[in-house]
Amino acid sequence: MQFYNSHTPVLSRAQSPVRELWRKTFLIALLFVAFAVLLPANASALQSNKPNIVLVNLDDADAEILSQGNLDAHYPTLAALARRSTVFTNAHSTTPFCAPSRAALFTGQYAFNNGCKTGAAMHSISNGFAGGYQQFISNGHDENELGVWMKRAGYRTMHVGKFHHDGFQNTVPPGWDDVSISRGLKFFNTAKFTNIGVPRARGYLTGEDTYVAHVDRDHAIAALDTHFRSRPSQPFLLSLAPFAPHTPDDPDVTRMVEQRYLNYADDVRQPVNDPDFDEADFSDKPEHLQRSPLRRSERALYELVYKSRLRSMKSVDDQLKAIFDRIEDAGKMDNTFIILTSDNGYQLGHHRMYAKKDPFHRSTNVPLMASGPGVRSQQFGNHLIAHLDICPTILQLAGVTIPNSVDGKSFASLIGRPSSSDEAGWQRSIMIENWADKYLIGMRFPIVYTAERYYDEIYVAWSNGQREYYDLEADPFQLENQFDSLSSNVKAQLASSLRNFRKQDVTPTITMTSPERGADVTDAINFAGFMEDDSAAVASLLTIKSFRTGKFFNGNSWQDDPAQITIPGADPGNNVNDWQETIELFSETTNDIDYLQSWVRAVDDSGRVGPAVWSSNVIRGSSMFARFNPTLNGKTFRYKTQQINGFMGAFPDTTVRIAIFDRQTGKYFNGTTFQDEYARLDADLLPNNRWQARLNLPTGSYRIFLRAVSGKFFQRETFRADIRVN
After folding, report:
1. How many CB atoms lie within 10 A of CB 198?
2. Contact between residue 176 and residue 159 where contact means Cβ atoms under 8 Å apart
3. Which of 331, 375, 522, 418 has the alpha carbon at shortest distance from 80?
4. DSSP label of 64
5. Burial of 382 (0-12, 13-18, 19+ CB in 10 A)
6. What is the per-residue DSSP string for 351-385?
7. Helix axes 296-329, 76-83, angle to 10 degrees
8. For residue 473, what are the CA distances in angstroms to 220, 476, 638?
9. Residue 454: which of 474, 432, 479 has the closest Cα?
10. Cβ atoms of residues 634 and 537 within 8 Å
11. At 117, phi and psi to the nearest 5?
12. In this structure, how many other beta carbons lie within 10 angstroms of the beta carbon of residue 30?
């Protein structure tokens, strides 16, 4: 199948008729009518000069599954497209994770700029960072993104398939004329929302017997047909986002495969010969990524996942053929650019990892091919390209001014002419980031990092202070982490470059992942989270307040005035870093229960303090206090031996100490005599959380102070009783 002809259609311009002089009056009237009619016609002619654009953004399609060998063996439509495309081999997702990658694509902004960093803010693996479609809307991007910009430029905009994660509420987005949005991740009985071919937009389920690629195919063709009939000269942007080859929301991974392809290519096996697959020596990798070699069950699972992913792409190939044929039949293909890519790469046992999010090449590297007018044969470019560069590229192809907010760099000039620019010098570097953790065979792995990807190098700064550096020319499979062998000067340069990559000047932010809001806690509370800044967040300022007493904890005791506990970050020189501290504390409430309010703020390297995030928790079984018997205050003792007593909390290893002050002489009783220096006595501990002290005080007036002590903790001496001895 040939998608493009080698020529560009030439558009003719209408001309006004001029006839005989004696018909001047009629001519003037005719000219007025002609201007009224021909101006819109000329505008349409100019508009039709703009190219149509089809953007195909696959889901989890790594470069391996779309290798030339797989294209030739399994995907005739994609193979034909590749033969007429510029294929870019060094393209990367800047946030290799579904939702933030799509937000970056539509805004042309890094996630640290657009604020959509995770799939959903409320998910535990999101570590308190924002994300999802509602965050996209909250940040105003639905009114200021690719679809909106193209629509304003006169394009008919259509989106079919996956849109964003979390929070889509069945409303046609402002930037898109025609939508067929797939929700969830079910290839059958898919939740859809569409305004194509219906009187009004509606949501529905496709049914258990209906495969999602067929629905997407039909909706895309219906939208194109309506457009070709109603506005044939208007350019269009068609955004296609298939589910494939993402695994389904179903324990049975084969539920991603169309029925007729369930046994397709049964003899195909997952390629496992590359040395990064089940990497033999994993000792050079960061400690938090360490795991044992792949188990036999994992290898079997990855084999099944590989086949299912490959088979699901067969249906995408069929879907694209039908859509491309319809564009060809309408005579529009000669003036249509097609850009095909994926939201992120994928791992199936490489580096002993699974899926995405991590900064290894297989997770960040995405397939990218671009074809269109003037592209007559397959060419290759190894220029460093970011997935978010696609947005400004489409805008430039359409003749649309690229907004200043866009971070990406258009590669439109390279389509059909990759040799026109030096590959190594095309782009100095791009940033790759991730804020959400991942699960791997039931285990949670911390995957928060920032990385700077160069043409053939990558430097990774993990939020916990771990580091990686790979020379990709010498070590394309990232087998040997060379960071420790770098000179201190090179290490400093890499850290400085990454720290200064972000150009905006922002207030530092912080998240609190522990303790979980509303959870019960004990005397040892793990306070933890992440700090982030445009340069470097260096410390967190933690405040802990008792709801019952209104006091503040200073690390050793409770006090009336506000107190802050300073917790340094795990890596104060990085944009994003962990903060964590286990705070041992006690409660001063007498019923062994208190309510704590905790809030924390980040401080950056310029001394700015960011907004607070907070948690509210119940603390039980950690009361440490000492109280007097209520009848003691004001009591007069008329005998030689005085017994004072009271009750105390059940906090472990608590000692009750008393200080006795002579109100007439200003001296302290040390148990035997009086002295000028401050003195304390230990009380005797009794069963049932009681205490007592037996004294032999001479006649006088005394004030007794009381405190509970356990290790480094102490109750402040705010409890006192006045007694007299006659």
Report:
1. 9
2. yes
3. 375
4. T
5. middle
6. TT-EESSSSSHHHHB--EEEE-TT--S-EEE---E
7. 70
8. 42, 6, 93
9. 432
10. no
11. -100, -20
12. 15
Q: Tokens 């390629």, residue? A: 271
Q: How far is Cα 160 from Cα 108, in angstroms, rounded to an integer?
A: 20
Structural contact between residues 534 and 506, judged by C-beta atoms closer than 8 angstroms: yes
pLDDT tops 70 at residue 512: yes
Amino acid symbol at 436: A
Asked if residue 160 lies in contact with residue 241, where contact means CB atoms within 8 angstroms, the answer is yes
User: Using the 8-state DSSP alphabet, how is residue 277 labeled?
Assistant: B
Structure tokens of 695?
Answer: 């004294």
Inter-residue contact 578 to 482 (CB < 8 Å) = no
Q: Are strands 156-162 and 236-241 parallel, antiparallel or unpaired?
A: parallel
Backbone angles phi, psi at 454, to 5 degrees: -100, 180
In angstroms, rounded to a whole number, what is the distance separating the alpha carbons of residues 651 and 634?
29
Answer whether residue 603 shows pLDDT above 70: yes
Instruction: Place 24 in a pLDDT band, splitting at 50, 70 and 90.
Output: very low
Distances (CA, A) of 532 to 216, 266, 295: 40, 48, 37
Average pLDDT value for residue range 262-290: 95
CA 386 – CA 138 distance, rounded (Å): 25
**CA angle centred on 392, ends 390 and 397, rounded to 5°:** 90
154-166: string of b/e by CB count within 10 Å (b at 16+)? bbbbbbbbbbbbb
Tell me how far apart the terminal alpha carbons of the chain are, to the nearest angstrom. Answer: 113
Look up residue 421 and give its amino acid.
Answer: S
Q: Which two tokens stand for residue 606?
A: 């310029």
Q: What does the pLDDT look like over 605-634, one tens digit per residue? A: 999 999 999 999 999 888 888 999 999 999
Could you tell me the domains of the chain? Answer: 1-40 (no CATH), 50-440 (3.40.720.10), 509-620 (2.60.40.10), 626-725 (2.60.40.10)
Q: How many whole angstroms separate alpha carbon 450 and alpha carbon 497?
A: 12
Strands 520-521 and 368-371, sheet pairing: unpaired
Let me know the angle formed at the C-alpha of 119 by 114 and 122, rounded to the nearest 5 degrees. Answer: 105
631, containing H or E segment: none
DSSP-based three-state secondary structure for 667: coil
The pair of structure tokens assigned to 132 is 């999802």
Element (H, E) at 654: none
Looking at 535-609, which runs of residues are DSSP E strands? 537-546, 552-553, 558-559, 565-568, 576-584, 593-604
- Distances from the Cα of 142 to the Cα of 134, 163, 343, 348, 703, angstroms: 10, 12, 19, 34, 69
Residue entry with tokens 């960040």: 364
Q: What percent of the chain has pLDDT over 70?
A: 93
Assessment of whether the complete model's pTM goes beyond 0.90: no
DSSP bridge pairs for 713 = 710
Structure tokens at 687: 């069963």
Tell me the helix, strand and coil percentages in the chain, rounded to 5. 25, 30, 45
Is the separation of the CB atoms in 179 and 194 below 8 Å?
A: yes
